[in-house]
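Changelog excerpt

This revision adds worked examples to the README so contributors can see how folded entries look when concatenated. The first example is reproduced verbatim below.
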Amino acid sequence: YRRGRDTAGRLPLVTSPVRPTAPLRATPPRALLVEADAPLRRALTTLLQVEGYEVTAVDTVFGTHALVRLLAPAVVLLDLELPYRSGLSLLPHLQADPQTAPIPVVVLTTLPALLPPARRPLATAVLTPPISAATLHAALQTARSAWLVGQACDGQACAQSTIAAAREAVAHAQ
């Protein structure tokens, strides 16, 4: 330690050795899982954790838009067949909100016909059971790519063309 005065000679000056700081740890990406079926929700939570995600899981679409805004997850996994209100109703709200629009949404459904062609572009990927770990991994990679493209692209056309290419990779993995 050294005690002294500042360069003007008026204020006390104390210097101390530099202490090393703790190594920086990357915050794990967050996934928001919206799934009504409890056993499937638990299984998907485990798979997402194995993939390195911190998971927030809910069983209803009510309040989910606000939750997406609050958490800003790296990906949303959304079941379409939820009680009381379909997950399909959330998609346009997420897309219309500038804060949530860049967040990729992976749709989970046993009935892909529930997702009309007009709303299909709102989903980064669509998964139908059985969902293997490899299929989920491919969908998460697509979602990550879509998120990165959304950050880098200057417009939706750029992002949509890249997402379309990534979707083909997911379809191939299924």
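The second example, added in the same revision:
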Amino acid sequence: GILSMENFNVDLAEGVMLLTPFAADATDELTQNFVKNYQEAYGEIPNQFAADSYDAIYAIKAAIEDQNLTPDMSVSDICEGLKKGITNITFAGLTSDEITWAASGEPTKEPKAVVIQDENAVIKDAEGVPGGVAQGGAPDDGGGAGAGVDAARGGAAGADEEDLAVVVLHGDGG
């Protein structure tokens, strides 16, 4: 993050408020397990893009499970099932306690507010933050399956983290 940039005068950041989907120093168990495992594997603290990628894999897993997709299905059927499944789930991950997707693929998730205090990023309650939603628009009202991030909580059912590819999901680029 900003505080670890080489040659950056951290005094300049004092009091700055940032909205981010991920803070590596959060105290919840899910984040702490992810950060510990990431540091062991890569020798550095994960950034928000590592957390986004991690969440993306487990959101795809949840969409696959929601639609009961199997490897013996046609590519077209799997693709259509993924599109339906991703808009049907509500996902709890590293970057938000509740992520939903619109039919366009646009995610909706709550931000984390971070304030720089005494050369540290301090997580603040995001309530009252203007806008209220870091990405996307209104949540899809399609309900959801309530998926979670298994590996950060102690291991994905039937999969090792090394077996998972990194995928970044994004909207239409607008």
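Reviewer comment on example two: The CA atoms of residues 41 and 162 lie 10 Å apart. DSSP finds three helices and five strands in the chain.
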